[in-house]
Amino acid sequence: MKKTSLLVFGLLLFVYGAKSQSRIGLKAGFNLANQTKTMSIPQVPTSEQNTETLIGYQFGVFYKTMLSKNFSLSAEPAFSVIGSSMTLVASDGKSYETDEKLGYIELPLTLQYSFNKLYFGAGPSVGLKVFSKLSGFENRNFDITSYKSIDAAGNILVGYGLSNKIDINSRYIHGFMNIIKDPSYAKTKNKFFNLSVLFYLK
């Protein structure tokens, strides 16, 4: 129910933008993602797990509607792959370099302030999980079932208009909630940096 409501909300925002004098378009880019992981399992002291950056990608649509001369509201619903990389040790003592990939449909909303071609923004973001997979462990792929289906985060961005048709922007998103279903086992929060190109259709 939550997923449906959020998707309908995002669709209504996009349709509103399409019908107004706002600008709409397409976007694509790449993500540099990581996670904050705190493990808490029997016989193992609670500690931060070392993770490394995972390179993902993002593509979607956007609309931007002007609220005043300098302020605008922007929504950029997109499919985004994030997660982290880490070294895991199997029961036989062998180490494996693994990738933990999570696919989300994200809806970041930002209130933006523009100055000439430069703009800044901040706002909330909601992510609806599409998949979560672990690859590379014991040379196999696994579906991860321990993650919640929704994530909530905050996002800040800076962008620049290269032309009347093309923008670039960089965004940092930091998760607010533990995305693990069982908090007694572990705590994990998403965080990632995105760099995207935006192409205006109108």
Lay out the secondary structure:
Elements: H1 2-19, E1 23-39, E2 47-48, E3 54-66, E4 71-75, E5 78-89, E6 95-115, E7 118-137, E8 140-143, E9 150-161, E10 166-175, E11 186-200
CATH classification class: Mainly Beta
Strand content: over 45%
CATH architecture: Beta Barrel
* CATH topology category name: Porin
The overall pLDDT, averaged over residues, is 87
Please give the largest β-sheet: 11 strands, antiparallel
- The run of helices and strands is HEEEEEEEEEEE
* Strand segment count: 11
N-to-C CA distance: 33 Å
> What's the helical proportion of residues?
under 10%
Write down the domain tally.
1
Regions with little confidence, pLDDT below 50 for 5+ residues: none
Shape: elongated
Main structural class: mainly beta
Account of the protein in words:
With 202 residues, the chain is mainly beta. The protein has a single domain, classed as Porin, CATH 2.40.160. The chain is 9% helix and 65% strand. The protein contains 1 helix and 11 strands, in the order αβββββββββββ. It has one helix at residues 2-19, and strands spanning 23-39, 47-48, 54-66, 71-75, 78-89, 95-115, 118-137, 140-143, 150-161, 166-175, 186-200. Strands 1, 2, 3, 4, 5, 6, 7, 8, 9, 10 and 11 form an 11-stranded antiparallel β-sheet that branches. The chain is elongated. Residues 21-180 form the Outer membrane protein beta-barrel domain.
Brief synopsis:
The chain is mainly beta and 202 residues long.
Which tags fit this structure?
202 residues; mainly beta; Porin; eleven-stranded antiparallel sheet; Outer membrane protein beta-barrel domain-containing protein; Beta-barrel_OMP_2
